[in-house]
Amino acid sequence: MAADPPIEVRGLVKTYGQIVAVDHVDLTVDAGDVYGYLGPNGAGKTTSLRMMLGLIRPTAGHVRLFGRDPLLGVAALEGVAGFVEAPQFYPYMSGRRNLELLAAYDGHGAGGRVDEALATVELSGRAGDRVGGYSHGMRQRLGIAGALLRAPKLLLLDEPATGLDPAGMRDMRVLIRRLADEGMTVLLSSHLLPEVEELCNRVAIVRSGKIVYEGAIAELKRGAGAVYRLSSTDDERALSVCRAQRGLGEVRVEHGYICFTADAAAAAELSQALVEAGALITMLSPETVTLEDLFFSLTEGDGRTSGSVGGSSDGAMPTAMSS
Amino acid sequence: MNPGVATVYRWELRKLRYQKRTYLGLGLAVIVPIIFVAAVSFRNHGPHDVAFGDYVDRSGLAVPLVILLFGAIWMFPLIAALVAGDIVASEDHNGTLKTILTRSLDRGQIFTGKALAAATYAIVAIVLKSGFNPLQSLSGTIVSAPKGLELVFVSLLVYLIPILAIVCIGLLLSTITHNSAAAVVGTLMFSLIIQLIAILPGLGGAQPYLLSTQFNAWQGLLRTPTDWDPIIRAAWVCALYGLPALGAAYLVFLRRDVAGG
């Protein structure tokens, strides 16, 4: 029998009066995943994480961590660590003293890991200072150190890089990458797309409490199909050729370009058809679909994974192709 | 070593040692008797309108007993409320509750450790205020009478009964309000309102069952023969006030959503 996955969430709902904060969320995080839980602010990410850690009770549905229910007690959190929102500590105690408290609450030899955890997050030099004097970035790192005391197999991190300066964000990514490489399963909530795209192999994209996509990033991109931009010596004729051409979808004019979705073979056939029709190509460029495009399409658009993406791919550099 | 209630208790006491408010309450407990004794020295006679007031200028051992009378009105409830009202709410407010609830200790263990720490603080404050201080401040007066010391000690124990009921109410308010100031002030207000009810005309029949009355139960010890009735009544009346509050606080803490911070 296969081992229980680190996280299995089924039909999770949390309502506050009339407000549905989390709306029938299903997701599975497998061992070894670096899983991105992606959504705009207020989409219900933190509420979901709180339910995963047993801090709040679901209105309906359930969470299982390695097959255990966090509502039944902290035994379910064995091998699990993390934080929701900004990690918080006792400001009147030093960083080390805070970690010692957490280690005492963890037991199982966690006290012996305090120095190692401080070194991992590069806080050894400031460990004797009161947390009240720490910067936001230092507290985030102390949060990770607090999680590492539990020698977790599963790490849940809520927006770990939010509020950090660019160097802090880079360091945080490097740290998470390293932990993942060491074999830790990580669930990372974020609204920072580059962070998720760089670190995660799988994502759940959440919008207004609902999951609008769950799966591998690579599949999400593949499912979206490539979008091409075209300009020619005779756009009117080119447009009618495109509309008649097999293998092209969603043909439209945007910002003076003809845009459509197609695979590489259909685009090649199109170039021949355009030449034959006398509309010579001045530019035919595939747009690279970024996670950002997909994200905005899913969280602001109609919620479908394909079709309307691509038009706003400002970050992608088109490759000009002339006939 | 696996963590348990003792772990929480130990760390709660350690945390109290780091916080200013701890010393505020304890400082109050120590300073007020000194001011009281100084005032009595200047007047050259004790307050005549309270029990044992006349003895204050004759024996240092009367000081803690007179202070027990004065302290019942607001000071001991305030000192008890300072920590009991804060001990859960401040963690809520600072967001550290979520930090400690995602470790290896059950909510029940954390609550029990906190409740024990809050009770310990109230006990230490009372002992500091009434037991230790007069020996220090009135050295030279009659402090060696073993019977007198025993009386003061037992009086303090009896006095602790209503104080612990106040601690329970403080814990309940701390758990349900999520707000330290509201819980501390609420606990003090509760105590003051109970005192007011006690002096309302027409409530004479209810008097023995009000929490405030139980603050006087220790006086039974000073009668000859010792009057145990008010002490026994204090035990069960205070249990009626304190235990439901403690039980409710425990259940709320066990089940509540930790969504702040």
Structure write-up:
The complex is a heterodimer of chains A (323) and B (261). Chain A has 323 residues and is of the alpha/beta class. Chain A has two domains: 7-221, Rossmann fold (3-Layer(aba) Sandwich); 225-300, Alpha-Beta Plaits (2-Layer Sandwich), CATH 3.30.70.100. Chain A contains ten helices and 13 strands. Chain A has a six-stranded mixed beta sheet, with helices on both faces. In chain A, helix 3 crosses helix 4 and helix 8 (235-244) crosses helix 9. By secondary structure, chain B is an all-alpha fold. Chain B has one domain (5-255). Chain B has eleven helices and no strands. The longest helix of chain B is centred in the middle third of the chain and has 32 residues, at 146-177. Chain B is globular. Residues 132-144 of chain B have low confidence and may be disordered. The chains are: A alpha/beta (323), B mainly alpha (261). At the A-B interface, strand 5 and helix 2 of A face helix 1 and helix 6 of B.
Strand and helix map with partners:
The complex is a heterodimer of chains A (323) and B (261).
Chain A: E1 7-16, E2 19-29, E3 34-38, H1 45-52, E4 60-65, E5 80-83, H2 95-106, H3 114-120, H4 136-148, E6 154-158, H5 166-181, E7 185-190, H6 193-199, E8 202-207, E9 210-216, H7 217-224, E10 227-232, H8 235-244, E11 249-254, E12 257-261, H9 264-277, E13 281-287, H10 291-300
Parallel strand pairs in A: 3-7, 3-8, 5-6, 6-7
Antiparallel strand pairs in A: 1-2, 1-4, 8-9, 10-12, 10-13, 11-12
Helix pairs in contact in A: 3-4, 8-9
Chain B: H1 5-18, H2 20-43, H3 62-71, H4 75-84, H5 89-94, H6 96-101, H7 107-137, H8 146-177, H9 180-199, H10 211-214, H11 229-255
